[in-house]
Specification:
The structure holds two protein chains of two kinds.
Chain A lengths: L3 H5 L7 H15 L10 H15 L2 H8 L17 H4 L22 H14 L6 E7 L1 H6 L1 E6 L5 E6 L8 E4 L15 E7 L5 E4 L2 E8 L1 H6 L1 E5 L6 E5 L8 E4 L14 E7 L7 H8 L2 H5 L9
Parallel strand pairs in A: 1-5, 7-11
Antiparallel strand pairs in A: 2-3, 4-5, 6-7, 8-9, 10-11
Helix pairs in contact in A: 2-3
Chain B lengths: L2 E2 H8 L3 H9 L6 E3 L2 E4 L1 H15 L5 H30 L2
Antiparallel strand pairs in B: 1-3, 2-3
The chains are: A alpha+beta, B mainly alpha.
Chain lengths: 301, 92
């Protein structure tokens, strides 16, 4: 901590009037609001103000001279200077352009630049605001109307178009931050996250589904109900279907603008009853052909 | 940050009576919302400047009036210069 007398540039015998004079002289050139272009002014001004706080108080000055206190602890609490706000872009009622109004009256290039910059400030378009919106997989295929809760307490109605892809960004015109003058508001940009589904996955415009079937449905064939994002449909399983057999449901996939809908691809998976059935056990034990069949034949393992 | 009159008086250290005079002089222009005045951080910083002018510099009310007018013009110019800067450096 510097000696406060040195900071103000006065002798230790200076009168309180001299101290005040010295401080005012320094403050004139160091006050950040009166010298907005001087970046170093703030630190130096704080130092001078701290020194003045100490020396202008007769009691504190006496104690400092006697060596009872030092110059530390005289720092003023942090405060923001007006210059930090004065040229900010968000507009305040104190802006005054009369200082250069006459320049703008002429026809030269400089006047044109000034006018353009002023118009740009006056008619500033509002900012785009970014949001995230998670939706269910089924909603991404069928489309949906969602309501987004905004941080400021408001809501935003969002129409999810059918066939939307994970990560797609929807732009709501004019739903962003308000603009200034004729600038108009910005847009709301909503990044839509499609949540994973326990049944469906997406591959391009096709939807993949793994569907468990019973052994008898696989061997004998039959009609079964299959879920799709737009509701259940009936599908026939051909006789002798196997795990991995993939059946195609035409037009039950994701819609695409200007193109036919994708398909739903149903991959069958044979599932045996949970508890071992003695009848099935007996049949398989006596089924010679079944024992002779080796599905791994010809594979490398 | 937008604050009420009470919060403004606390954070700026200005007395209520003084504030009324300052608003009358249009040294401060708070926003009128419903029946209440609301103040911004800009207003607080400006109040600090006015307090410094009157306290540190010992300037009387007429002087403060003149200085604020000049300071506002100075900042208007600085703002214009700041927005001009990119267009000037991009021109040949």
């Amino acid at each position: 901590m510097k000696n406060p007398y040195d900071v103000l540039g006065v002798a230790s015998t200076a009168s309180s009037t001299d101290i005040q004079k010295a401080y005012r002289k320094l403050a004139k050139t160091l006050h950040p609001d009166l010298n907005p272009g001087d970046k170093a002014a703030e630190e130096k001004f704080k130092e001078a103000a701290g020194a003045y706080d100490l020396l202008s108080d007769g009691e504190k000055r006496k104690r400092f001279d006697a060596g009872e206190i030092d110059a530390s602890g005289t720092e003023r609490p942090q405060h923001h200077f007006y210059r930090d706000f004065a040229t900010s872009d968000d507009g305040h009622p104190y802006t005054d352009n009369t200082g250069f109004a006459d320049f703008m009256d002429s026809d030269d290039a400089f006047a044109e630049l000034l006018k353009r910059s002023q118009r740009a400030r006056a008619d500033r378009r509002g900012e785009d605001l970014h949001y995230r919106l998670p939706i269910e997989f089924v909603e991404s295929i069928t489309g949906a109307n969602k309501r987004l809760a905004l941080p400021d307490g408001g809501t935003l109605d969002v129409k999810i178009p059918p066939g939307l892809i994970d990560g797609q960004v929807l732009r709501l015109k004019g739903k962003g931050a308000p603009g200034a003058g004729k600038g108009g508001p910005g847009d709301a940009l909503i990044e839509v996250e499609v949540l994973a589904d326990s049944r469906f996955t997406r591959d391009g415009d096709d939807i993949l589904l793994e569907l468990p079937i019973s052994l008898s449905e696989a061997v004998l064939g039959g009609r079964i109900r299959v879920p799709t994002p737009v509701g259940d449909v009936t599908m026939s399983v051909p006789k002798g279907s196997n795990t991995g057999t993939t059946l195609r449901l035409k037009g039950k996939g994701a819609p695409r603008r200007g193109r036919a809908r994708g398909d739903e691809l149903v991959k069958l998976k044979i599932v045996l009853p949970k508890s071992p059935d003695p009848e099935l056990n007996a049949f398989v034990s006596n089924w010679i052909k079944g024992k002779e069949f080796n599905p791994r034949e010809g594979s490398s393992s | 940050m937008i604050m009420s009159k009470h919060a403004f008086l606390t954070s700026s250290g200005v007395e209520a009576q003084m504030l009324e005079f300052w608003i009358e002089q249009q040294w401060l222009i708070p926003t009128q919302t419903d029946a209440e005045l609301s103040f911004s951080d800009t207003d607080v910083a400006r109040a600090h400047l006015i307090r410094d002018l009157k306290g540190v510099f010992g300037i009387n009310d007429e002087g403060v009036d003149v200085i604020l007018h000049l300071v506002d013009q100075l900042h208007g110019l600085r703002r214009a210069l700041a927005t001009l800067n990119p267009s000037l450096s991009s021109s040949p």
